[in-house]
Amino acid sequence: MQVPKGYLGVLDLGFDAERYDGYWDGSGRHLDDPAGSSLAQYRLNLAGGWRFSKDWQVSLLLPMVHNDSRYTGLTSRSTGVGDTTVTVLYDAHDERSIWKVLSAADLLPSVKVGGALTVPTGLSQYDDVDLSFDVTGRGFYRLDATAQVDKTFRGLAASLSLAYGVHLPRPINRLYGAPVTPTTKRLGNKATAALSLGYRLFIGSAGDALTLTGALSWMHEASTVQAGERLPESTVNKPAFSTTLLWSSTDHDWSARVAWAHTLQRDGWGTSFPTTDIVSLGVKYAIR
Amino acid sequence: MRSADRRAASRRLPPALLAAGLALALAGCGGMADDLFPSGKDLSGGAAGTTGPAVGQTAPDFTLAAAAGGEVTLSGALAGRRGAILYFTMWCDICDRHMSDMERELFAAFPDVRFLALDYVSGSAPDAAMAELNAGWADRGFTTLVDVGAVQARYFKTYMAVVVLDRDRVVRYRGEYLPADVRAALEAMPPVAP
Questions:
Q1: Does residue A99 register a pLDDT over 80?
Q2: Which fold has domain B63-187?
Q3: Given pLDDT bands bounded at 50, 70 and 90, which one contains residue A166?
Q4: I need a labelling partner for B76 at 20 to 30 A (CA). Which of A145, A206, A274, B184 fits?
Q5: Touching check for B97 and chain A: CB below 8 Å?
Q6: Interface of B with A in 113-142 (CB under 8 A)
Q7: Global pTM?
Q8: Taking the alpha carbons of A97, A99, A102, A106 in that order, is the dihedral positive or negative?
Q9: In this structure, what DSSP letter does residue A13 have?
């Protein structure tokens, strides 16, 4: 979530409904969940951003998570806070114009760089939780370096987002509520990239706009290391396709969105990760 | 309120909301402190000679239905063996990774160890057999047992994790699947005399 230039802050309320349907194993083979399974997670995302100087902004994302799981013989529902993310962004370069190209400088995109800290405020498998279906967080602090490049030209907008995160190691002394031999664990470094292309269409005569965006994203997480040992087949790869329809008001103070993200349930399109569909709804208000 | 006051108030609003959100995150859930301030204190110790799930304690001699039919008693499964591995599976991607690694790294190295997959989600022998088949684990070296709330929830409270037992049912290892630690626990147990 970002605070547009010239605004003081934003408030954002989002809702995700994620349905799990099968998974890729360590070799990339896609397998179905056992018959009768139904796994879903719903997230209410509360977010706020504040531009505290002309080029700097900070934002906070706090999800409330509800798990609704039926996995053959097991049924479980749980609700709790998810992991919190605090992000700081710096506007390294601003676009000069989106309507006319008068010089080479007008072709330069806007560039934002920054950092994010994920705080494990959710319930993880290392907390006092009985079932793997009931976790709402991963249990690790993570530091990310981020970069985003945006270029708009008339109704077209292209964006490239990159992030590289390092999980901090932590001690572990229990698993799903049961004590285990104390050890240390560190999740692998995480790299994400997303490329999107959108088109904005003005509707009516007042200047409201609809923007349709398609995106391809890719996530890679390196092997987990526990007690100095690299865990087998813990490397994760997950590509996803998504599309977003965004309405924004004439003055851009209000916007609303609906999005759908999909992972292909086919062999070779990912490794060691569930395949999911995510439907998202959201509304955002920008404070001048 | 004057315009300047409103402006000043609106400038204070975003950081106040951010702080409120963070406070909600920190205060909203009682169990999160384990992750915010993780501990390495050993909570697992159990007295040797007693029945319990901790390392050093003795596992109960449970009997479970087998996916292939019939029943398996733990003491019977251990008879004539160096020991046994109990792997609590829900046939998920993480389970598949762990089981694949055991198949690759441990089956041949420890032919005198019994590998038991305790399916705690399927609920019946036919369902467990179907889950085992769908996950590609039929006839690959694990004996699948049906365990709904019997051993896993009431006793070991261990998901997608492994328990190593010696021939006397003494717990030698319990925790996440760590190949080197599991192998070390197996190697520490005397092999069966030929």
A1: no
A2: Glutaredoxin (3.40.30)
A3: very high
A4: B184
A5: yes
A6: 120-123, 127, 130-131, 134-136
A7: 0.80
A8: positive
A9: E
